[in-house]
Specification:
Elements lengths: L3 E2 L13 H5 L3 E2 L1 H9 L15 E6 L4 E5 L17 H6 L6 H5 L2 E5 L4 E5 L4 H4 L10 H11 L20 H16 L5 H17 L7 H17 L10 H15 L4 H5 L2 H16 L16 H5 L9 H14 L13 H25 L7 H12 L11 H12 L2 H8 L3
This protein binds iron/sulfur cluster.
Amino acid sequence: MLPITLPTIQNWSCHNCSGCCKQHLIEITEAERQRILDQKWTEADGIPPGQPVVVPHGGTWWKRGHRLAHRPDGACVFLDDRGLCRIHAKFGEAAKPLACRIYPYAFHPGGRRITVSLRFSCPSVVANKGRACTQNKGEINQIAKLVVPEGIEKLPPPGITNRETVDWDDLWRITNTFDELVTDEETPLIPKLFMLLRVADLLSQASLKVIRGQRLDELLELLVATAAEEGVPEPSAPQPIAAIQFRLLVAHYARKDTVADLDAGWWHRWQLLRAALKFAQGQGKTPKLQECFAEVPFERLEQSWGELPEGTDELLTRYLRVKLQGLHFCGRAYYDVPFVEGFQSLVLIVPAILWIARWLAASNDRNQLTLEDIQRALAIADHHHGFSPIFGSRGFRQRVNFLARTGELGKLLLWYSR
Ligand code: SF4
C-alpha cells in the first residue's frame, strides 16, 4: 500500500459521545445489509418488535440503496442507552458498516501517497482530545486497506484553476507554502487569511505552463511579498448583494436534516424554502434551523462582537491545517474543484463559523462569544463542508466565485471577526 500521511497536529480518540450515531445517516452496501439481517436482531438485543434495522434509501428505481434505520428520537437503531453500539458490543468492531468504522477519518489521493484528514463534526476532533493521530497509525492503516481503491496513485492532481494544472510534486509545493503561511505564529489568523486570499487570487492569474519546481517556489515567494505589501484594510460591511449570498450560504451550513425531517418530505422542503427567504431578506428574526438556535434579530448578528475569544486562532489554524495537509478542500475530496476555488471555499467557512457562533451566543442571550461557541459552530459547519451535495452544486460554486472575484470574501472575513 502507498505511504499514508497523517495529520501530525491533531489528536483523536472516540469518547463515546454518540453524536455521530445521532447526526449521520449511515448508507450501507448490499453486503452490509445482508450481514446485518443475518445477525438476527431481536427484542432480547434491545431492538423493539416490528422495528426494522435497515430501510430503503436512495439508489435508483432498478437498484434500491439502503441505510441503517433510526429511532423516533433520531438515533441509530443500534445505539444503546449507554451510548454504545450494539453491533460492536455483540459482534465486534469489524461487523459494523464501513461508514461507522471510518468516521471521523477521511482518506484522499495525494499522488504517491494517501493523505488523511478528519471531520470536525466530531466534538473530540474539535477539542483535539485523545491520542495523537500518529499513535493511531495501526488502526488508520487497517481502515485505509478497506477504503482506498486500487490504482489511486494514478489519479491526476486537482488543477490550480480550470485552466492551469501542475504535477503532484508542484501541487504539494503550493499546498505546503499555504500551510506554512497559515502556521506562521507572528501574525494573527484573520489578517493572514486575508493575505492568503490575495496570494490565491494572484496564483489564479499566473500562467504556470513553464513554471515548475524551484521556479514555482520563487514565484510563490514573489506572490506572497506582493500580497503582503497591500496590507489589511479596516473592516467594512459587505455589499448588500454579497451579504445576501453569504447569509444563504450560512443557512446551508447551519441547517440540520434529521431522519424525521427527511421523512417529513414536502413539508420539510417547504420549511427550508421559507427559511431561505428569511435568510435572503436578512430582516426581522432568524428562523429556527436547529434546536440550538433561537429566533434572534438578524441585526444583532451584524453588530461588532469585540475580539475573538482566546484559543480561536489555535482552533481555526488547526482546522485549516488539517484540511490543507489532508488535501480536504479540493479535487476528489471536495467536489472536484480546483485548488484556488477549494481554498476560497475553505476560507469562506471561517466567517460562516463566526456568524453561527454569534447566533449561538445570541440564542443564549449573550453579547460575547466564548471559545465553546466557536467550537460548536465549527462542528455544525464542518458537518456539511465537503459532504452535503448542495455544496458542490453549480449555484453554490457560483456564489463562492462571486464573493471571491468581487473581494467580498475578504471583507466578510474581517467583518465577522470584529
Ligand atoms: S451501527 Fe453502531 S456505530 Fe454505526 S451509527 Fe449505529 S450505533 Fe453508531
